[in-house]
């Protein structure tokens, strides 16, 4: 069984990033990422902090905008519009989830598609669905695809079963892997909470991706011998024996499933690491594509 570690694959992504940054800097250009954080959710704050630190480490310009829980939709959109017009900013990301008083779809639509490095704007989703490579794909699915590629796992013609149909992960990963060309050409099945007889379905998978947010739901009986398993789930479960009082686990029961696999990702240290790496790659690409 091969353990696909996020840090190893992310190192390859960052190596590409360094080369591209050097080329851009020789032209006097520095990619810039703006992240908007609304409210004070600890997990969101931690994700935003990690993104900011990675920008600093790589030498990207970064801007963090912290807004109170009570911010109005129009104020939030004013911030986005200012960033859309700012030539030093090439990527704009609004950390999700937003407070219930704000409409996530309206907020995402306010981001200029050319700066939508999270790949969730309808223009970018449509480009992904239409096989138009000029758009941005969401970072977590891109990270999954890159992990498979860097690990020498060819998905062409293989049956990939994805658990979860969110736009953020499951649905867009299906679109990515169904595309024509390198790292794609897979036969994809997407399952969700209404899918019947899940274990029988997932046992057909050459490559199984779990993105459901259900700790340890995928057990040994869900996986065929020799399958590749990507665990996207990040779930906090209480654990008083740890300093923080909780620990992170995936959607896959790692100990039960790993012995059956050809390759598997751990949680933490797997797909999560790739999401930030692909965000950096998307931001650098946005800078390349922009004239600013
Ligand atoms: P989400 O929007 O809540 O979607 C969850 C999906 O899983 C839905 O399609 C849901 O089905 C399906 N589902 C839920 N319970 C199920 C079950 N028992 N059997 C089959 N399908 C089930 O979540 P998400 O944003 O896609 O995130 C999924 C997980 O990935 C979470 O743990 C999240 O923290 C993690 N995540 C990790 C990263 C990363 O960087 N590694 C990034 C994003 C998300 P319905 O559509 O029928 O409700």
How would you describe this structure to a colleague?
By secondary structure, the chain is of the alpha/beta class. 39% of the residues lie in helices and 16% in strands. The strands form three sheets. It has a six-stranded parallel β-sheet. The model has no long low-confidence stretch (mean pLDDT 97). Residues 140, 163-166, 168-170, 191-195, 198, 211-214, 217, 232-235, 271-272, 275 line the site of NADP nicotinamide-adenine-dinucleotide phosphate.
Major sheet strand order: 1-11-8-7-5-6
Distance between the termini: 46 Å
Q: What is the radius of gyration?
A: 19 Å
The sequence of SSEs as H and E is EHEHEHEHHHEHEHEEEEHEH
* Percentage beta strand: 15-25%
Produce a short descriptive summary:
This protein is of the alpha/beta class and 292 residues long.
Question: What's the topology here?
Answer:
Layout: E1 2-3, H1 6-26, E2 32-38, H2 42-58, E3 61-67, H3 73-85, E4 91-94, H4 104-110, H5 122-129, H6 139-150, E5 159-163, H7 170-178, E6 187-191, H8 198-202, E7 207-210, E8 228-231, E9 235-238, E10 246-249, H9 254-257, E11 263-264, H10 271-289
Parallel strand pairs: 1-11, 2-3, 2-4, 5-6, 5-7, 7-8, 8-11
Antiparallel strand pairs: 9-10
Helix pairs in contact: 1-10, 2-10, 6-7, 6-10
The chain binds NADP nicotinamide-adenine-dinucleotide phosphate (NAP).
Keywords, separated by commas or semicolons:
single chain; 292 residues; alpha/beta; six-stranded parallel β-sheet; three-stranded parallel β-sheet; 11 strands; 39% helix; 16% strand; binds NADP nicotinamide-adenine-dinucleotide phosphate
